[in-house]
Amino acid sequence: MIRFEKVSKAYPGPGKPALDNVSVDIEKGEFVFLVGASGSGKSTALRLVTRETRPTAGRVYVAGKEVNRLAGWKVPRLRRQIGTVFQDFRLLPNKTVSENVAFALQVIGKPKSEIRRVVPATLELVDLQGKGDRLPDELSGGEQQRVAIARAFVNRPMILIADEPTGNLDPTTSAGIMNLLGRINETGTTILMATHDESVVDQMQKRVVELDHGRVTRDEARGGYGSQVG
Ligand SMILES: Nc1ncnc2c1ncn2[C@@H]1O[C@H](COP(=O)(O)OP(=O)(O)OP(=O)(O)O)[C@@H](O)[C@H]1O
Question: Can you give the residue ranges of the ABC transporter domain (predicted)?
Answer without folding.
Answer: 2-229
